[in-house]
Design brief:
The chain is mostly helical and 360 residues long. It has one domain. The two termini are 37 Å apart.
């Protein structure tokens, strides 16, 4: 919204600052952070009053989790509100990639909200049918992937960029949209599975978001893209504003979600933020790099898939409990120990993902 103030600029004055993505990204970060600090406590108090017993706790979960009974959920509303308000204030609203990512975030947030609402009102951990959630997610992701392909440059449309290899593209043709659907829905559900301990999901999401923000800025800048040998996607640099707002909103939420959590993110936040990461990756042609940067989410999802398939085949379990963070809980690791070590892993993977920009 504030980008339009550049119309009053004659060059070299205060209004000229609004032309710079980096300035607006910094302001988006600050706006989202302040929003989180200002409205975090009132929102948590409101959720506690409305939800009563809070998020239901799984009967088969670690014993330590029963102490969390009564903690309200839907804390993702705080992140999403801060994120969306900041993005709409500071991003260029004539940029199609911004709207693709924003709409994916909102749509997946609504799916998560419906699931959280069902869990809280019925005091049941099942929530909305997984088929309905998965089907709705696929539909949203399909539209987003199709839109991204439509706005990509002609030479990149329906192409899959391969990291580490300069100018290497794989033409997916009609399979690009299904591939994009898998990336977005997979990211949304992987983050959702990771959200099982206080602060576990939000920091890796922030790290992955910040990394994708840097990638977006590089990919959207012709000079940087040419220097690093990555594919230039005009307009994607504006997604840095979105990711900066995500980081600021995430910090505001983490203030209240740090152990012991005053509020849980819930599916409202985890599905929305995961979907956003997937959408950014599709827009910037860095789908494969997302699997590296978000490697922690991949491992969490794979642990569930392996556990289910192996149990159906043999009747035995590979892990003490899935997702894998519960496995370490069962082994006696303290919750903060698991969370901080997973944060460290996420940061390492982010550095590896950024290294792919230079290694060509």
């Amino acid at each position: 919204m504030f980008y339009w103030l550049t119309e009053f600029s004659s060059g070299g004055d205060f209004f000229n600052l609004f032309r710079y993505i980096t300035f607006r990204a910094g302001m988006a970060f600050a706006t989202a952070l302040i929003f989180g600090f200002l409205f975090g406590r009132p929102l948590i108090d409101l959720l506690r009053r409305k939800q009563g017993k809070g998020q239901p706790i799984r009967d088969d979960g670690p014993q330590s989790h029963f102490a969390k009974a009564g903690t309200p959920t839907m804390g993702g509303l705080l992140i999403l509100s801060a994120l969306l308000v900041s993005t709409l204030m500071w991003a260029r609203l004539d940029n199609p990639y911004v709207w693709i990512v924003v709409l994916v975030t909102v749509a997946f947030g609504l799916i998560g909200f419906a699931d959280d609402y069902a869990k809280v009102t019925k005091q049941n951990t099942k929530g909305v049918s997984s088929r309905i959630r998965f089907g709705a997610g696929l539909a949203i992701a399909g539209l987003a992937a199709y839109a991204a392909a439509a706005f990509h440059p002609a030479d990149l449309t329906n192409q899959l960029a391969v990291p580490l290899f300069k100018n290497t593209l794989i033409n997916l043709s009609i399979f690009f949209v299904p591939f994009g659907m898998i990336v977005i829905v997979g990211a949304a559900n992987a983050v959702n599975l990771t959200d099982g301990l206080d602060g576990l999901a939000i920091m890796p999401v922030m790290i992955a978001g910040a990394t994708l923000g840097v990638i977006s800025y590089v990919v959207g800048n012709f000079n940087f893209a040419e220097y690093l040998g990555v594919h230039f996607v005009p307009g994607t640099g504006e997604l840095l504003v979105f990711t900066a707002a995500l980081f600021g909103g995430g910090l505001g939420f983490l203030w209240y979600n740090a152990p012991p959590a005053a509020v849980f993110m819930g599916d409202t936040g985890s599905l929305a933020l995961g979907g956003a990461l997937g959408a950014i990756a599709v827009c910037t042609k860095h789908e494969i790099v997302l699997a590296i940067v978000g490697g922690l989410f991949v491992v969490e999802a794979l642990s569930v898939i392996i556990q289910v398939l192996y149990f159906k085949r043999t009747g035995k379990r590979v892990f003490l409990m899935a997702p894998i963070h519960h496995h370490f809980e069962k082994k006696g690791w303290a919750e903060p120990q698991i969370v901080i070590r997973f944060w460290i892993i996420s940061l390492i993977l982010a550095m590896v993902g950024l290294a792919t920009l230079k290694v060509r």
